[in-house]
Amino acid sequence: MKLNNHASGHHFLQIPGPSPVPDRILRAISLPTIDHRGPEFGALGLSVLAGLQLIFQTRHPVIVYPASGTGAWEAALANTLSPGDALLMFETGHFAALWHKLALRLGLRPEFLALPGTDAVGLPNGWRRGVQADLIEERLRADAGHQIKAVCVVHNETSTGVTSDIAAVRRAIDAAKHPALLLVDTISGLACADYRHDQWGVDVSISGSQKGLMLPPGISFNALSPKAIATSRTAHLPKAYWAWDEILESNKTGYWPSTPNTNLLYGLAAALQMLLEEGLDNVIARHQRWAEGVRAGVHAWGLEIQCTDPQVYSPVLTGVVMPAGVDADRVRRTIHERFDLSLGTGLGKVKGRMFRIGHLGDSNDLTLLAALAGCEMGLKLSGVALAGSGVQVAMEFFASRPQRAAMPAAA
Amino acid sequence: MKLNNHASGHHFLQIPGPSPVPDRILRAISLPTIDHRGPEFGALGLSVLAGLQLIFQTRHPVIVYPASGTGAWEAALANTLSPGDALLMFETGHFAALWHKLALRLGLRPEFLALPGTDAVGLPNGWRRGVQADLIEERLRADAGHQIKAVCVVHNETSTGVTSDIAAVRRAIDAAKHPALLLVDTISGLACADYRHDQWGVDVSISGSQKGLMLPPGISFNALSPKAIATSRTAHLPKAYWAWDEILESNKTGYWPSTPNTNLLYGLAAALQMLLEEGLDNVIARHQRWAEGVRAGVHAWGLEIQCTDPQVYSPVLTGVVMPAGVDADRVRRTIHERFDLSLGTGLGKVKGRMFRIGHLGDSNDLTLLAALAGCEMGLKLSGVALAGSGVQVAMEFFASRPQRAAMPAAA
Amino acid sequence: MKLNNHASGHHFLQIPGPSPVPDRILRAISLPTIDHRGPEFGALGLSVLAGLQLIFQTRHPVIVYPASGTGAWEAALANTLSPGDALLMFETGHFAALWHKLALRLGLRPEFLALPGTDAVGLPNGWRRGVQADLIEERLRADAGHQIKAVCVVHNETSTGVTSDIAAVRRAIDAAKHPALLLVDTISGLACADYRHDQWGVDVSISGSQKGLMLPPGISFNALSPKAIATSRTAHLPKAYWAWDEILESNKTGYWPSTPNTNLLYGLAAALQMLLEEGLDNVIARHQRWAEGVRAGVHAWGLEIQCTDPQVYSPVLTGVVMPAGVDADRVRRTIHERFDLSLGTGLGKVKGRMFRIGHLGDSNDLTLLAALAGCEMGLKLSGVALAGSGVQVAMEFFASRPQRAAMPAAA
Amino acid sequence: MKLNNHASGHHFLQIPGPSPVPDRILRAISLPTIDHRGPEFGALGLSVLAGLQLIFQTRHPVIVYPASGTGAWEAALANTLSPGDALLMFETGHFAALWHKLALRLGLRPEFLALPGTDAVGLPNGWRRGVQADLIEERLRADAGHQIKAVCVVHNETSTGVTSDIAAVRRAIDAAKHPALLLVDTISGLACADYRHDQWGVDVSISGSQKGLMLPPGISFNALSPKAIATSRTAHLPKAYWAWDEILESNKTGYWPSTPNTNLLYGLAAALQMLLEEGLDNVIARHQRWAEGVRAGVHAWGLEIQCTDPQVYSPVLTGVVMPAGVDADRVRRTIHERFDLSLGTGLGKVKGRMFRIGHLGDSNDLTLLAALAGCEMGLKLSGVALAGSGVQVAMEFFASRPQRAAMPAAA
């Protein structure tokens, strides 16, 4: 991507977020900024807040922060917890680890559950599978005194390409008869993978703008449950910017207590309209089909996928593990330089061992085939022996499996 | 402003921020989002960080937050203070009051100094004048035990149109030989009014994107001093999202630890280029001239200006006090409905008593004359008796006082 | 207007076309170019052609040319006339004169009727009044052999600010029982002034994109009558690019025989939607009100309006005559340099004697007051003695005469 | 391409023009329209006219028309010829045939030379090879009386993908010692294929905006020779809109006699800057490399290329001939519906027999591989038996043959 581009064609941004932003949204965010206290703004605010509820599948309030996803992580903790509270977090990958670190910085006492050990190729077992609800249940049963105030899990682990079963986590908490809140990071899951805030009994869902919502980064969210709201009234970690109370009050008329991110809200309104016009089921099916095509390509190359449990393959991204001795970042660099294609780097414990192909946002079959072609050429140029052509297999997949047409709303 | 506009001409956004955003910036923020870990991004980051130093007039680091100005207020306190710390804050208006309330919510012990009493027309004295450095000096001298950890003042009080003398506050602290940090909110002052972070000995300057920088809201700043950075290492209010340490580390190569607000950074790069091309001195002179023209108009109407001390008239906005019995918000509404002109409302203790004319951002003489014309017509339609035509007097001012041409850099 | 603008506010483009283009249209023309032979294009084409009929108030075809208005002048002649044909044209100003010259270049024999003489201030009488239908009738009656094949008049003369009575011209032709075609240039009249192709019996209406349609220049139009179409089949001036026959055939399915101006057609679709949403009656009333306000201002200055017949004042622009000895172009230059306001120059026989204020396109009351303020300041700076403040009088006009609200379609 | 697009990714516009327009150009054309008589405009005009000379490789004037390429065809003839003049035109394909038809409509006497016969698969021989300079020389030698006033050939025949040798045509005319003018249509050749107006002795070069210049359609060009200009002074086809004389006069200061296509000129300025920054040699090499990769793909499919002479393969587009019995337009429709990829249809004598892949404009290796993937899938879905994978072979080509980096200007 050259910001002052020559006639070099579109950059292929196939990282797992920020996702490629549709033109319609880029245009929306460049509308003139308006008075955030004027009448037009209130109408915009109410419309955006209502649309977000449909996306989170909740009847309860959704908080919008002018902040990145990290801010929304902090907000979820700051509103529901008190200094020194114990938490149960589950290590699914790099982003779970970052959230754990953030909890530590806030003066909380997070316990970090994980599947132990590494596998045959030296990758941590816990980074190749989803949240283990049975381990959570077991741990909560052992917490007779209910010291643990919240269970924190990542829905779609962006660093690995694993989409955990959140309903199972809720069942585990209920089975343990434990009162802990359930806080879920669905930053990269929302509006790509199936996500049901109310039905799954989530207390705080955390999300961001730059993944399935297809916006640039800069807005993030907390979807709340009544229990979370009630808890926030007594929790006493210091909170001001993140405090839900004043925001909830202002939001009733479509405004915010501090200056909102007006132009990104224009984009959010456009994104919500696009997603709801298409229909959330169609949106999710679209990402699943893309993911299946990409995985077919990776399999054809004879390379391993980071996620080893097909039940929890991510519809958002696919982690591609390099053969021993191949530096994944060198491969990525070659692909970027030669084919103007950006891929996600390996993060934390898998740095250099894998790269990530994002298949979300403003894409289509040909975009993904182009991305696979860029990977295939780059892998070969990097000396990686491939079992076959991933592009060829993915073409067969996409040609033989047309995307389900969007259903009319009344059907 | 109609978001789906008919051929109704440009909306006149004359609130004291968000300011009218130049097309060049709106276009910049709609460029395709890029990989915030890729090589192009690092170059963008370094360029923006360097430019910000020139605007804050500092050689020390400037922190960029994907957050509104309220977040940057919180960040300044969270990085430099510990639970229960005492602060000295000065009430210049509504935004000083909001910052004070935020400090309370964070568990700090802010003392709120103010000029006492109300004046002849019932407006609070402290909301019509600047920070009183002598009162601060007096209070600090009384704090023999140095309990007060920071002095917090607002540079340009957006709710009143008063630009305080920050150098005088620094002199007061020094005169009192007090070690308190000096934290200054220049959210609406920066890049409109003269502001010198290093020369004035400010420890943390807080600013935002949507005023003199002419961006949409969504980015805010902390400019630091070495003393502030040193203090942040031991201050122990919980901090994660706002924590300077990781940001300073990442910023060395032009990146951020969490996802930055990429598209607003495009806009920021454009804004910095525009301001530096024009020259900061010219930018400030431009706002001063506009303000003088607008005040000439208000005087001609025979209406009072909120700021009663000509030494501290704001170059950014002018507060216009309504005669007794006139509801300023009704006047504003008439003006908005009839002439598509947005003005700032009276906030807090002056609600309904005054409105505010912003004269910042993407404006020119004719824009301001149009705004004065809208006010003049709306005041008359609202039954406010005017002594004369403000438009007429402002035309004479603008015609007789051409704007100083931008000087070539080498001159 | 600086193409790489500093924060200098919007340029005030108050020439009588190109008119200020609404953002909505500028955004539309920057959508990606599509295949002009693909299915989406046909739908666009049909929609645009249908909308144009509503604007021209005709049930007959409208031809769209990728060409400026001059091209559409040539097209009207080339399709309906044969080498050496006699025409009757009427001199209303510079554009009538240019069209006359074009007819000469095409090898036609145009006769140029005009009011004779100059008036007290030395300006040509014919350039201050509309088409004189009685002179046309008289001339046609004298043409017993029907040598004259077409009568050519300008509806809204952009060089003077006079809007002629086209219905009267039609009555004159009919009264003379003359078979000549009626060709009318409404380049700057359409979608500002009342215009009725069918009702007024016009055979070819010529218009362009950059005036009332609020587009950039580059598209122009011929609206046809059945008689014009029939005539075109036998007329034998050479024609290819301008030939109606192939275009009419292709247009049936929404396409064009040669490559159409795709991106300007996007803008045209947006413009038609805006105008039809507002309602053509409201559009015309809006321009009339603006014109009345501007004329009130000019009268208050004590300056003469170019058009001396109030029955034919143009709703699109107002010509302002300078006192003897004042170079109108020097005044315009001062206004442009000091206040970033563009005005129309005096053209042809009135060069240096007057300037023109456009009041069309994306404007509103404050825009026009700003334009008047720029003129008033510039006139004074140029040493022109003014009788009073035009801005003051125009403010009174606009304040006391609210714009009629757009009526709901069903009312 | 959906004008109100869902998150369906970018449309792949791989027709041989309009080419995919770079964002930078789309943004340029949406800048506010300025006064085409103001000082900023003159600077824009001069800059664009100077840049065009570099692209046409000429020191002589280039005329810019607000018109499509068809208009520029007409202009070239209208300025240089008189009623009834004889021309020699050469049939290379559909666009040569359209130009021939246009000459007939203008009342000229064009003779249409062609290679006779059809080949084994029933396609016309002349539509698979370039201009035959020997046939032209022979015909001119036979024209002892010099009745033929101009030789008209198409440089890059957009309907077939053949780029003729223009220098050879010039040599043929010279060898025949014939004074005829050489008029060349390089509408789709300019700024993709090598083109040298002066060096090749072309008298009028005709081009358009929507191909190698990467603009939307709406502007077209005549590049002139001194001989062409001299001829235009006596040629007496009627001409007004197209007449060079007034345009040449106005252009001296950067203006036009009639209203220019301002916003497309903004785009043209941007396009010229992009092309000249890259360097014309690099631009041409880029298109040649793309074309070679695409042809490698077509060969791998075992399909015939429309052009049968490798010396004159077009760098701009490749015609792909369908096996007997396959309806090329049905294949195109399938590809468009399933993969949102637009291809060029077969035109005129090859309708239904072939489709055309454009490889010009804002593209890159991955874009072209995506286009080939769309074709490959669509061909298979249409039941066309392929010999192998064109995508696979093209990947090998693009991977093994990196694009030459742009050379620094000074090297």
Description:
4 copies of one chain form a homotetramer. Chain A has helices at residues 23-28, 39-56, 69-80, 94-105, 133-142, 166-175, 226-232, 244-251, 262-278, 280-301, 328-339, 365-381, 390-400, and strands spanning 12-14, 62-65, 86-90, 109-113, 148-154, 156-157, 162-163, 181-185, 204-208, 220-224, 304-305, 317-321, 341-343, 354-358. By secondary structure, chain A is α/β, with parallel strands linked by helices. In chain A, α9 (262-278) packs across α10 (280-301) and α11 packs across α12. Chains in contact: A-B, A-C, A-D, B-C, B-D, C-D.
**First and last CA, distance of chain A:** 42 Å
Element order, helices and strands of chain A?
EHHEHEHEHEEEHEEEHHHHEEHEEHH
Query: Helix content range of the residues of chain A, please?
Result: 25-40%
Shape of chain A: globular
From the alpha carbons, calculate the radius of gyration of chain A and give it in angstroms: 21 Å
Report on the biggest sheet of chain A: 7 strands, mixed
The largest inter-chain interface, given as chain pair and residues per side, is: A-B, 62 and 62 residues
